[in-house]
TrEMBL record:
Keyword Transferase: yes
Alphabetized UniProt keyword annotations: Glycosyltransferase, Membrane, Transferase, Transmembrane, Transmembrane helix
Protein name: D19L3 mannosyltransferase
Membrane disposition: Multi-pass membrane protein
Compositional bias per record (Basic residues), positions renumbered to this chain: 1-10
Family assignment from sequence similarity: Belongs to the dpy-19 family.
Positions of transmembrane segments: 41-66, 179-197, 217-235, 242-258, 264-281, 312-329, 341-362, 416-441, 462-481, 487-509, 521-540
Gene Ontology terms: cellular component: nuclear inner membrane
Amino acid sequence: MTTVRQRRVGKGTEAAEDQPSEETNVKPDGKIPSDHTGGKLWNILSVTVGGIVAISLGLLTSVYVATLHENDLWFSNIKEVEREISFRTECGLYYSYYKQMIQAASIQQGLHGLVYDNKTESVRTINILERMNVYQEVFLSILYRILPIQQYLEPVYFYIYTLFGLQAVYVIALYVTSWLLSGTWLSGLLAACWYITNRVDTTRVEFTIPLRENWALPFFAVQIAAITYLLRNHLQPVQERLTLIAVFIATFLFSLTWQFNQFMMLIQALALFILDCLDMLPTAKVTWLYIIQISGLLLVCVLQFFNSMILGSLLISFNASVLIARTIQKNLKKGGLINRLGKLILHVLLVLCLTLLINKFIKKILNLESDEHIFKFLKAKFGFGATRDFDANLYLCEEAFGLLPLNTFSRLSDTLLFYVYVFVLFLMAVAAVVVAFRNLSGSNQVRLMEKMEEYTITLKPDAAYSLVHTVLFGCLALSTMRMKYLWTSHMCVFASFGLCSTEVWKLILKCVHLYTSQRAQVIKYSIPIITLLYISYKFWPGIMDELSELREFYDPDTVELMNWIKSNTPNTAVFAGSMQLLAGVKLCTGRTLTNHPHYEDKNLRERTKQIYQIYAKRSPEDVHGILRSFGTDYVILEDSICYERRHSRGCRLRDLLDVANGHIMDGLGENEPDLKPSLYPRFCEEIKKNLPSYTTHFTRVFQNKTFHVYKLAKHK
C-alpha cells in the first residue's frame, strides 16, 4: 500500500474597463447608458495593476502546489521507480504513454507504437490515440525531445511542472472571470485567494498530477472567461470575432484532454438553453456557442480516429436538436405570458424528443455501447431500480461517485466562502426570477413589475449565465463528489463577484432605504477588503505550517514487487491483476497487461469482470482457463482486496463479484433470496494453501506482506 511518512532528518479602488458600473437593461438587446467614470489613464493603470496581480497569484499558486508535492513525497530524493509508483491508478497509465514516447527511437516510432498498441490489452491491438485522451502526453513528449533541455531537466519534471504551470492558467482564468463580472480586479483577487485557501476542495493536482481533469479544467476556466466576455453588451465586431475564436480554442483543448468533456459541456449547453428560452441571452451568441461546442467536439473526434463515443454523445444530439427546433418554431419569443409559456413547454418537449431520437439513431447506426455503464450507474444511483450489474455497482460503491459529504460545507464555511456564496446565490436567483418573468410578460404590461422597479436588480447576460452555470454544476457536485472541483472553483468566482458587485449592494441598500451611490461604492470595496484581511489573518499561518511540513514517499512492498518483475520476468510477460495495480506495472516495468483503469470500452469492462474472478468463489480450473484465454503468464493477488475492510459488506469487490455470480456474500448480514452458496471457496484465499488442485495450475514465484505473484501453467 502506498503511504507517506514523516520525513527523517537527513539528506484599492479601480474603475472597470469597458464595463458599465450600472445598467438599466433587462433584456440583452436593451440600451445601456455610456460609462463615463474614470479617464483612460486610470483605466490603463487599473488594468496593468490588475493584470500584474493576476499573473503573480497564478505563479504563486503554481509554486505552492509544486512545493506541497515535493514536501509530501520528497520527490527530488526518491528513486525513479518510487516516483512512478506515486502516479496512482489511471494516472500511472497516462504517464506511461509519455514515458513510452520519450523512450521511443524516434517520434514516428513512438506514434506508431501508440496507434498499434499490443501491450495495454493482451491478445488485442488497440489504438491508444482513439481510445484515450493522451494527445497532451504526445505533445509534451515531442516538445521535450525537440527542446534543448534534456541536460537540465528530467522528463518527469518537465511533465509535472507543465501541470503545475497549468494551475497558474487556471487561477488567472478564474481571476479574470470574476473581474469581468464585477468590473473590479479586487473581485478577482478575492476569487484567487478563496481558491487557494480552499485547496482541499478546489483541486487535487498535487497528488493526482496526470489525471485528465487537471489538464482539462484550466482550459474550461479559460473558456468560461471567454464566454463571460462574449456575453457583455456593446462588443465591437472585431472583439466578438476574436472572443469566439478564443472560446473555440479553449473548448477544443478542453474536449481533447478529458474523456468526460461531453457531459460537462452538455450541462453548459443546458444552461445556455434555459437562458435563451427565458430571453436572458442574445440568441445569436447562444447559437454560435452551440456551433462551437459541436465543431470542437467533432474536431476532437477526427483526431481520435472517429471515436464512436464522441459521435454518440448526448451533447451533439442535444445541440443539433435545439438548432432544428428553432427553425421549426420561428416565433418562439413573441406573444403574451400564457402564449410564451405554452410555446416554451412545446419547445422543451420538442428538443427533448429530438435529442432522444437523434441519439438513439446514431447509437443504432454505430452499434455504440461504450458509455452504457454510465447510464446504468446513473439509473441505479438515482433510484430507478436496484441492479446487480458489476460495472454500475463498482461505481456506486466508490466514495468519489457518492453524494457530496456534509463536511465539505463546513470547510468552505471556515473561509466564509460558502456563506457569501449562499447570500449572493439567493439574491441573484430572486433577481433572475423577476427578470425572467418580466421578459416573458413584457415589462410595460406588468403593473406588479412597475411597482417593484425601485427594488429590482438588473441581470446582465454574463451574470445570468454565471448564475445558471453555478446552479447546474452545483447539482452535479452534490450528486457526485468527484465532480465537486467543477463547482467549487466557480463558487469562488461567483461569491467574489457578488461581494464586489455594485448592483447587489445597490439592491440591498435600496431595500433598507439607505442607498446612495457613494455608500454603495464604499461597501463594494470595504467588505471584500475586510474579507481578504480575515482570510489572510486566519489561514496564512496554516499555509506556512503546511509548507514547512516534510514527509517522504514510503511503499516498500510495491517497490519490491516492481523490481522483482523487472528482474525476473521476460519483457513479453503478460500480467493480470487489479486495474489500479496493473497501471503501475505497465509504467514501472513495461510488461503487457490484461486490463487497466481506462474503463470507457465495453470489451475491456467484460474482460475486467472476468479477470476479477481471481477474487470470486470459482474453481482453480475456471480461473486458470479465464486467465489463459487472455494470454496471462502471471497473476498478482493483493491481500488488501482479498481481505478488504475499506468498504462495508455489500460494497467490497468480492461482494460485488459474488452478487454478480449469483452467490451468497461472506459475513453476517442479509442476502437476496435467490442468491445461492458457491460450490467452491474463494480463489484468492484458497490458492495460498498450496493444495494440489491449485499447484497444478499455479506456482507461487513471489510473495511479500502485500502481494502474491503466481505463474500460470501452460499445459491447459
